[in-house]
Amino acid sequence: MRAFLALRPHLLTEAEGGLEADLNLPPIEPQQLALGAAVIVAGLVVAKILRVVTRWVWARRHTASYARVFSTLVQYGFALLAIGVGLTVALPSVQPVDVLGGLGIVSVAIGIAFQNVLANLFAGLLILVREPFRAGDQIAVADVRGTVEEVNLRETVVRTFDGRRVLVPNSTVHGEVLTVQTGYSHIRTTVVVGVDYATDLAAARAVVLDAVAAVPGVVEEPAPQCLLSELAPSTINFDVRFWSGARQLETLETRDRVIESITSALSDAGVQMPPEIRMVQPSPELTAALDAAAERSSHGAPEES
């Protein structure tokens, strides 16, 4: 028993030494830890500076959303690189190949777990690079219509025309049919005008075109058009086409002024715009009931309640 107790410290020392040898754990030097920490801190500071510089440069050439997103990506990328370098300096036993291998496995797991998030992220990057629209443009996608406020890595922020804030996933914006209302400086609007069948069509056309051309907000080129479109039951219809500013409010206000101007001009010229006439055809059952009621009334018989 005494011999065993005497040998115990020696056995523990050999066991610990063998365990360290099996795990291949090198000693950690305080100087290396301090140097690695300094590398990480310096890298984070440089990453912050890079973000500010790249955002300023890209804001002069691209949209504010483009500059904000890609400058942030530059910052995060450089920060991760600095952290990797710092860990390598602090822990020389950590091989970059092993770190990259571990990151590859983690990346696959993240990709499977966050498919929708990654889809929105890559769609956001494509939107920012291609720039089909910019902040301030008015768009229509799916059931959303409004003004773009910003584009980030997850969604496109839209303020609808009735004042609501809607977050549209970037995958929807990229995958659905997208209408950019302000993609061009002017858009065309059509107003239907119906006149009486006895109207002099050439004279009515001239009155309408003069009225539209005098409206503020209607552009001269392309010129307004007044085209016959339909022989309705009570009217002959014109499609009055004109071009105005592309923004929603400009379009609505110009349309309002055009309708008012056309109505006043046709009224002053004595052109009638009769209301729509609807003909009601009674069913055979209703016709039979009406005939029976008329026959009873002619014979003085009381009607059934």
Question: Would you mind describing this structure in some detail?
Answer:
- With 305 residues, the protein is of the alpha+beta class.
- Among the domains are: 24-104, no CATH class; 132-180, SH3 type barrels, CATH 2.30.30.60; 186-268, Alpha-Beta Plaits, CATH 3.30.70.100.
- Helices cover 55% and strands 17% of the residues.
- The chain contains nine helices and eight strands.
- The strands form two sheets. Strands 4-3-2-1-5 form a five-stranded antiparallel sheet.
- Helix 2 (30-59) runs antiparallel to helix 3 and helix 7 crosses helix 8 (248-268).
- Residues 18-23 have low confidence and may be disordered.
Task: Name some characteristics of this structure.
55% helix; SH3 type barrels; three-stranded antiparallel beta sheet; 305 residues; alpha+beta; Alpha-Beta Plaits; five-stranded antiparallel beta sheet; 9 helices
Number of helices: 9
Q: What profile does the largest beta sheet have? A: 5 strands, antiparallel
CATH architecture of the domain at 186-268: 2-Layer Sandwich
Number of strands: 8
| Mean pLDDT level | 80
GO molecular function, one term: mechanosensitive monoatomic ion channel activity
Organism: Actinotalea ferrariae CF5-4
Keywords: Cell membrane, Membrane, Transmembrane, Transmembrane helix
Subcellular location: Cell membrane
SSE map:
Blueprint: H1 2-23, H2 30-59, H3 64-90, H4 96-113, H5 115-130, E1 138-141, E2 144-151, E3 155-160, E4 165-169, H6 170-175, E5 178-180, E6 186-195, H7 201-213, E7 225-231, E8 236-245, H8 248-268, H9 284-298
Antiparallel strand pairs: 1-2, 1-5, 2-3, 3-4, 6-8, 7-8
Helix pairs in contact: 2-3, 7-8
Domain Mechanosensitive ion channel MscS C-terminal: 190-272
Protein name: Mechanosensitive ion channel protein MscS
InterPro entries: LSM_dom_sf (IPR010920), MS_channel_C (IPR049278), MscS_archaea/bacteria_type (IPR045275), MscS_beta-dom_sf (IPR023408), MscS_channel_2nd (IPR006685), MscS_channel_C_sf (IPR011066)
